[in-house]
Structures are given as structure tokens and as C-alpha cells.
Protein 1
Amino acid sequence: MRQCEDWGTDSITEAPFWVYTDPDVFDREMARIFCGRSWSYVGLEAELPDRGDYLVTRIGNRSVIVTRDQDGEIRGFLNRCAHRGVKLCRHARGNSRMFVCPYHQWSYDARGRLKGVPFIKGVKQLGGMPEDFRREDYDLPELAIARRGGVIFASFAPDMPALEDYLGDTNTAYFDRVFDGRGLRVLGYSRQLIPGNWKLMFENIKDPYHASLLHVFLVTFGLFRADQKSQVRMDESGGHALLISQRGEQKASEDTKDMRNLRVDFTLEDARLLDPVKEFPDDATVVMQTVWPNLIVQQQSNTLALRQIQPRHPGAFELHWTFFGFDDDDEAMTTRRLRQANLMSAAGLVSADDSEVIKLAQDGIAEGDGRSLMLMGGRGTGDETHMVTEVALRAFYKHYRAVMEL
Ligand SMILES: [Fe+2]
């Protein structure tokens, strides 16, 4: 097993390539990060409107069921029969009072409590479970649940801090900026398998430096550009971060000479693709929030989405997108959100670039010995007021090394 000293330096300005490829590191991440002391995003209350509604998702590489029980409470538990380890529920969502294993029909209630074992007393006084078998010893591990603004988080740790303490003041305030108590309306889903390590996705969203360079669409149409008014803000741990920026104009300046992908001569055939309207009280037009360990909250113009990271193995993760609006949106706003969603997800005018470079990064990293460099903007981990920085990546690795003891 890798040790702290294997990192090669105390620094957080470099990450050895093996953190993206080593199966032992991946196993430790699943145990310490995803099954450890963290709040993982698992779904929206709007997805479970009625009693008995459930959804199946993943925390790290563990399949979990999240359900609204008969009292209306949200519950969560491991999706794995205590008998022989069979996946209890094979549907992505549905409605059910009980969860019955397809193999031997052991049945569980909405809290994962074992309620039924067929032939527990045998047949004709033959067979059955031993006298000392107690059903309550085989309940499924129940997850702690936290809810805020209609968003559901779950944890395998029973003694987690409240979500607002976990996020810290700044990240809670920006979370509440989007999830302000209005009812949420799911507009659609998208999912993709990206052939790269899951941390590369977080690094991508925490990295404003690349946005001005890689994304033709963002820089050309002024949606996210290094010469705009911006902030990068972290919580105390470093695990969560916010990139906050304000849209500028489509024109060249002294600051854009390094942006090779800026095309001032490009125009949209259909300008409706970008017709943002102001909907939040502040002047930010884009806020990208990363919540340790598996959530990205995206507000780019009027396209809103949650992206959930589901690691599969060191070299791949699934990215699950949930696009949403609010119950009080009019039809024009819903159409606008959906139109702007063309920037995002697997084939998105912006996001396709990110999936591609994550794959290219993993390809290079997988060649072997080397280190990833995160020196842009200095060596600090404190908040910044510009985009030419990798500070949120350094903050992430500060927290990562502490949790992983690496
Ligand atoms: Fe990007």
C-alpha cells in the first residue's frame, strides 16, 4: 500500500501519476472518501414525490437505494442482499413498499430492515434457519440522509456534521443561491462513461485556467473568459470550491492574445442558443460548484444541472447529469434552459471538449512515471479573484491527502 512518503514531496503543487491509476489507491478512495466521512449527492426530492418512490444510484462504487418511506421520510440503504450479495433492485427508479431479492426472495422494508426470509422455519419440520438466527442481525446498512433545498445527500458515516457545517458558510450560501426553496422540476437526464480517473473531472471543474484556452465556445461567446471579473473560493477543508464569473463581451483585448481559440469573427446562426436572462440576485452569470466528493452544481447562464460522479475503476467514471428548472418557471424559461443545455453533457458544445481532454490526460498518465503540475497562481490554497490559477486543485489535494493519509 502506498504511504505518505511515496507522494515524493509534501507539496500539493504536484500529484504523482499513480493516484490516477493505482487500484489500491482506488480501493482506499472508495473506503475512505466515498464510504467514509462525506456527504454524497444521491438525488432530488422531486424525483421521489410519492410514498414508496425509490431511485437506485451509486456512492463511489456502491449501489444504493434511496426511497421515500410510508411516513414520507427519505431513507437510504445498501442495494445488496445480506444473504448472498445479490443486487436487490435492478430498476433505476420505481415505486415499492418492500425490496425483494430476486434470488431467494428475502425482503426488506424502506429502511433496509430484513422482514421476510422464505422457509425460515423449514418445510415439514425439515431444514430452515438455525434456532439462533435473528432477522435483525441481517438488516442492510442504512445511510444517514441530509436534505437541503430539495437536494438529497447520503452518508455511510452515522455521525456526520450537518450539511451546512460540512459545506461551510460560503459554499452553503452559493448552494442556497440555486436551491432557494422553490420546487425543482427535472427537465432531463444524460449520462456518459468517461475513460479517465474520477478526480480528473473534479480537477476540470475546479480549473478556470483551462476554460479560457480549451473551450472555443466559451471564449468566443464570452461565457467564461480569463479577462472577466471572477472569483475562486474554497471552504476551509479545501474539498469544496466555487468558480464564479461574470459574462463579458465578444471582443479581443490585450488580455485575449493568449486565447488562440477566441474567434471574434464567429457568430451563431441561431442567437436563441444564447439569450440568457438574469435570474439570480447577484451579477454572476456562471457559478460552478464542486461538492466533495461527488457533486458538481452547474449554473451557466440559465442552464442548471447537477453532475454526479460515479467512479467505476481507476481509469473510468460515469457522469450522471440531471438538468432542472423550477416549478414556477414559465414555458419560455423552460425552453431557454433546455436550449442552453446544448452546451452541456456528452455532445455539448462546451462539455464535449472536457470529456475529450480527460481521456487524453488519462492516456498520458497511464504511460507511467510522472507528475501532474498545479503551480499556476502560486503555491497557496486561499481564495483568489482571478481565473489564471490552479488554487482550487491545490486545495482539493490538500484535503485529499489528509483524508487518504497519503
Ligand atoms: Fe472545461
Note: The chain has a mean pLDDT of 94.
Protein 2
Amino acid sequence: MKTIHISLSPNLESDDLKLSISKLINPFIWKKTNYQNKLIQSLNQIFPTSQAFLFNSGRSGLQLALQSLNLPKKSEIITQAFTCSAVINPILANQLKPVYADIKLNSFNLNHLQLNKLLTPKTKAIIIQHTFGTPANLRAIRSFVQKHNLLLIEDCAHSLGAHYQNKPLGSFGDITLLSFGRDKIISSVFGGAILINNPHLLPSFKKLYSKLKLPNHLWTTQQLLHPPLSYLAKKTYHLQIGKLILLLSQKLKLISRAIYPQEKIHQTPTVFPAKLPNPLAHLALNQLNKLSTFNLHRQKIALIYQKKIINPKLKKPQLSKNSIYLRYNILLSNPQNLFTYLKKNQIIAGDWYSQPITPSNNLKLTLYTKGSCPNAEKACQQNLNLPTHPTLSIKQVTKIIYLLNKFK
Ligand SMILES: Cc1ncc(COP(=O)(O)O)c(C=O)c1O
């Protein structure tokens, strides 16, 4: 059986592959139709009370959105530990201070009971992450935000298409981040959007956005090469050739990595922030049209895991009917053994997140204090993500479950 890989173009279907190849073969197609506008229109249909702006990544958008708030230096932004450096780096880039709240272990989301003790006169905003597609406790967090006159930023990088109280996640805050990264809900390799829900924030944001440039053609070509090369790598991974294709493509810079090396020391690459190029907007739009099919598939697989995993060593998450399960996260005392065992059986599982802020070569730079978020640290030591992605078949899920239940 072919390798199951949680993060190697997990959303890539044949129509997406053809699309990227057609754009590589005939770059003039890039200019024919304005897919940026079409993508914005589609996002505005999902989020009718917001205005959408496209970026070459979610982190790009967050960086510009935070800049547009014109907050005093060292203003505090509360966010959860157990997150991605892509959330923290834009805060640091704006000379603001991330303040870390611990998480709940049943949802991997911010524990709102922490908020009171973290609040100071310098607190200006809360970034709320719907981890793995499970809605955070928006009711409690919104009432806290309103009471203390703070801004609410929803991080929907994992949760596009999920709902809370019958409204789409992303329509509850002042600002929303969406990601179209390679292993997110929908993918254009790199890409994202910011939704501005609070009209008071629009003028300053628009002013900055109007000055923003597109990345150069070389960068865009690199992203368009990702689908075909990762497809080839995936198809041949079990023969070891795939690994070689992947390594060589990265080494020769034919394809990008999800995180640039300087981001691991919490600096910003020159390509961020920038607008989303037209061909990548087309890839994102093609995937957005499949959003509900993708998410139904993820939910179906999560339910199967929940029913069929019976190994008492593995702690399953609490299911939430509103979650869309970008990944199905389990906890166990020594996940490394399980990673190795699955890998021997051609299954590459995920490790989001292996540090309270991941990836990082120097956690001190993130201003995270070791021991301050014990649940987040526990989750980092114990977690293993199982795949739920659109191209994962039920046969493959059955194999994963069989192996998990045999694991000692
Ligand atoms: C929780 C979370 N928020 C935001 C981001 C940023 O998204 P992007 O990769 O599009 O910059 C990521 C991933 O990188 C993420 O995991």
C-alpha cells in the first residue's frame, strides 16, 4: 500500500493538479481572468457581513492587520500556547507582546477561565484559535472581550467551513484570519485571507493593503510547482524515491517549505506580507468550491476513528458536532513510539504541536515562559495527529485503526 502522509499535499485532487500544471505550461493564462475577484466574491458569500482581502499567507494577513491597528509598542495580545509560529511572528514583527493562555485538553482550545488573570491595562486584543477545526468557547470569550473593550481576532486557519451557533466561524470577531496553506482546510500551497468584520477598522487596513505588492513570478512559479512535485513524491514515497524527490526539490528551491528558516528564529521573510497572486487565487477558488465535500469527509473519518479506536493507551478527543477535524488528535504517554511504529507501516502521522509555539529554534524569542501553560506543554509531549484529509480513503483509515488497536 502507498504511504499515507498527513502533510504532503493532503487536499490535492486530480483537478487541482491539472490546474497547477496548466498554469505552469501557459503562464499567459495567469492574466486572463481575475480569480482574485472571484475568490473574494465567494468568500463574501460565506461571510456576508465581512470584507475579504487576499494575502500570500494567513500570517502575511495577520501581520498587516495588526499593523493597521496602530497599537502602542508592547501592547499585549492574548493568544493560546499550543499554536504555530505563524501566529506569534506577526505579533512580534509589530513590536507587540504575545501573552499566552493555557488550553483545555479536551478541545486544545484556549481556556477562557485564564483570561481574567492575563488581563492588564496593556491588553488590546485576543486571538482565538479554533484548533483542528473545533470551535473555541466563543460565547464566554466574546462576553469577556465586550466587557473589557478588546478586539477579537478569530484564527480560522484550521476551521474554514465550521459553524458555531449556526453561524460560520470567522464571523464572530473584528478580524478573521483564513489560511490556504498546503495542509490546511483548502489549499493553494501558500495563501490566505483577512476578513474585516468591524467597519471601523477598514480605512486604516485598506490604506496599508493598497500599498502591498504581489510576490514575484519566481515565487509564484515555485508554489505552482508544489502540486506536481509533491504528487510525484507521494506516489513514489513507499519506494524511497519520493523522499528523494522531495528533498531535492526543496534543496534546489523548486518548491517552498511551509515555514521559512528565519521564521524559526521569529523573523519575517521578505516575501511576507504580500498579496495573493492570481494563479494561486485560482487554485484556492477551485478548492473552495469543494469545501463542504472536504469537511463532510473529515467529519466522517473522525467519527470512524472515534468509534473504532479501542486501544486503552490512546486518549481520544471529545467529539464536537461542530468540529470539522482538520486533524484528529490523540494523546498517549509516548507518542514517539507510535510515530515510529506507524512510519514503519507507511503512515506518516502529524505532530502539531510539538512545542507550545511550533516550530521554534529559540522559544525564548516568543516570550513564552516555560511552565506557564501546563496543559499546552502536556499536549505537546503527548499528542499525535491522525489524518482526515479529503484524499484519504476509508480503506486507508481502516488500516490506520487496525494498526492503532494493535499498538502496545
Ligand atoms: C493555527 C494557525 N494559525 C495561523 C496559521 C498561519 O497560516 P499560514 O500558513 O497561511 O500563514 C497557521 C499555519 O501556518 C496555523 O496553524
Note: The chain has two domains: 30-211, 291-406.
